[in-house]
Amino acid sequence: MSAVSSRLPVFPWDKLEPYKATAAAHPDGIVDLSVGTPVDPVPALVREALAGAANSPGYPTVWGTPALRDAIKGWLEKRLGARSVEHTHILPVVGSKELVAWLPTQLGLGAGDQVAYPRLAYPTYEVGARLCGAEPVVYDDPTELDPTRLKLLWLNSPSNPTGRVLPKDELVRIVAWAREHGVLVFSDECYLELGWEAEPVSVLHPDVCGGSFEGVVAVHSLSKRSNLAGYRAAFVAGDAEVLGELLQIRKHGGMMTAAPVQAATIAALGDDVHVHEQRERYAARRAALREALERHGFRIEHSEASLYLWATRDEGCWQTVAHLAELGILVAPGDFYGEAGERFVRVAFTATDERVEAAVKRLAP
Ligand SMILES: Cc1ncc(COP(=O)(O)O)c(C=O)c1O
User: Fold this and answer.
1) Which InterPro entries match (predicted)?
2) Which domain holds residue 126?
3) Ligand 1 in contact with 36 (CB < 6 A)?
């Protein structure tokens, strides 16, 4: 038996454990800013919808209920400005991480094919390429890649870890290049609702895709937008042919979103108030941490959107991690996201107001 796990990168979070222990020894406790996991409550209307659908004895479908697809269509049109969305342009997934990890396999990619993603990126794009035996390739500008063997191009705007947003004209240029070369574009837009100094644009916006979804798919998640990471609620939208194929495969694989989660997703997509409230919480935490880090001698780059500050003291990231751990603050080293991040740390602002305040005090010069 050949171990598939041997193809995968070493799970990097183990390397952070000693620093976590140091931070946890702080007399006032750890401030963990190393992961982007929501900490605020699930909105009441979403919990009520989940509970209201608790009596769901039958199997759900992979494609989801028509009501779920209607809710997604409504959101795509209203929030992203997408036009002429049909149900065939929509596919629910069980949180977006599983989609990212298994997409290359489900697209039938393998040895000889290439999957490309940003030089600094969420590690699961590489995992997905390696799971199916395709070659992972990083880029600074995707249009400089050799398209010959390139089958799947990942975009991620706003970016994890840098918070960078791709301007609309960049997206237009990249989508045109990919279409010209027959390269499928998957655009991971799970932080789209979290723009601070930039307004993220979707690949499904008519100005970018020209009103046709051919060769483009957007990935969206409710984990960050609606504090639903624990529910596993996400969807993809775009090219009907690609999604039709994925639907067939995912039906055979039993990749169904739980019925109560489908009901909760409908409620969450139909409400903007909780999104606004959650944004306000994050905006305050972001401003406080940003100021405290800058006063402490950090420089912040990009970070115009998402849930992270991309920060450097112009030293190796592990030195910075060690320094902050002594103050009881845990952050993620930039090299978790690619070698190019080796002089940065990623500081998540997904911590309670009380913990953010504690971090701000500890960072005071
Ligand atoms: C860029 C990016 N894509 C996808 C995900 C996965 O999110 P989820 O599986 O909760 O939808 C994350 C999670 O942090 C992420 O940062």
Assistant:
1) Aminotransferase_I/II_large, LL-DAP_aminotransferase, OxyQ, PyrdxlP-dep_Trfase, PyrdxlP-dep_Trfase_major, PyrdxlP-dep_Trfase_small
2) 44-271
3) yes
